[in-house]
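From the pipeline queue, job 12 of 40. The input is one protein chain; the requested action is below.

Action: predict structure.
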Amino acid sequence: MLKKFLNTSEFKSLKIIEKTLKNSKYKVFPGLPLYAVFDNKDNEFNREEKRYIHESTFDFVIFNEKSFPQLAIEFDGPVHYIYKKKRMSDIKKNRICMKQGLYLLRIRDFHLKEYEKITILE
């Protein structure tokens, strides 16, 4: 059986991001593993961070015209606020992004709601 790649909110987010970036030099890629974004040549990550990087993904990563990541976007559904394990995972991802200087934007369902024909995400 085939598996759905993005949930409904993630799919809507992707469409909004693509529309927003349409006439720019930036491109969005969904579902990228962290190891595709971060280079560890200088051994900047500890053992726990390295494990996390190899097991986790970003919902979306926006790259510039030279193929460098500029922004990661995470869609935080309800489970991000219910389960402690998920919150701890979010904290690790936040810390890794801060350490590497990658901006991380966290969005929720209400960011996708239209206000006067535009969403907060846009």
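Job complete. Residues 84-100 form the longest helix (17 residues).
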